[in-house]
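seq:
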Amino acid sequence: MVRDALFPLSYLRLVREDGKYLLRRDVFSLVLVAIGTISMLFLAPGLNFFGPSGLVDRAGSLSSTLTGFYVAALVAAATFTSHISDLDKYIPNGKLYLKDSLNVASNLEEDEQHFGEEITRRQFICSIFGYLAFMALAISIVSIILVAISSAIPPKNLYGATPFLVYLIAPLYLMAVAHMAITTARGIYYLSYKIYLGDGEPL
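struct:
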């Protein structure tokens, strides 16, 4: 049951044909976000980050709105007819594989046994928007919890007695929001342009 509930996170297990995780392309940007967040907290210690109408509250509201958009995009991608841009064919250039330690069936090709199961264009698009829908919902729920908890803690204690929690949670939270934004841009670009090219290579 837990495995099924967390299946949208399988996007993080996509592997390129060189054996490297697709997630690696976003690591540098996420590190910059973490550094920027910590710097912002140092330079502006009174920043309304967790409180009502603060950054977390606003980001959570945006995420809750985007959840419906991502689900709609997922449904659209899953129901496109197969002749549109050869959605059900494998990506010819820049092949992608779903990494799975359980996927060791003997009838798989050699590269599939090494990297995982090769995915089609449709599977790639569905994995993107499935991951985004999951992340948007998770961020919305986490935002509600963080705002509710912070409202019960005096600001002096929140930013004074427990600064390590702020400096730990804030970067992780914004990294999740940033990755959702980056993946959204990649998904829209692929769905609106890249998928219709002959190579269909993931960006």
